[in-house]
Amino acid sequence: MADHAVPTHAGGEEEPTRRDFIYIATGAVGAVGAAALVWPFIDQMSPAADTLALASSEYDLGQVPEGQQVVIFWRKQPVFIRHRTAAEIAAAQKDDAAPMRDPQTDAQRTVQSNGQAGKAQFLIVQAACTHFGCIPTFGGGSFGGWLCACHGSVYDTAARIRSGPAPLNLVLPPYVYSSDTVVKIG
Ligand code: FES
Known about the structure:
The chain has helices at 18-45, 49-55, 86-94, 106-109, and strands at residues 58-60, 69-74, 77-83, 122-126, 137-138, 144-148, 153-156, 161-163, 175-177, 182-185. It is of the alpha+beta class and 186 residues long. A 4-stranded antiparallel sheet has the order 5-6-7-8. A 3-stranded antiparallel sheet has the order 1-10-9.
């Protein structure tokens, strides 16, 4: 698997302008706002959910309804946990052999860090766009996945980069399933 470290700015590319940084900052605030919207919804299902997610790297996936995602924080970085629909999984698997900038199959996008297969219905990825770190939003772009509004990077339903300037797929955090419904991140 390719090294998915978030790229730092390297020579040969244009330096981000002050306006870019302002936009990036705005994107980060937007992400916090999105998380704030998610938690009250999750709270209704399990009052202790937000506390658990913030205090521990373990998360109960049973709290994420199909077709929804939550944003949790691991090492102070936002992580998407998306409960994918059958259509989202099928769309990702259909494109496994399509030309991509950072080729990975859908199975590789859901693999546990111990090398064992994960769960196709749960996609767990770090939320920072691999371009300059804005937080993409789900439901935008032409691949049914995420759109990063900062500079137009489009990710598919496996969070693979499909168009726009981002060089890599959204990064997988290390995780293993500690039970059938609980994932331990980190
Ligand atoms: S930060 Fe530039 S496209 Fe996402």
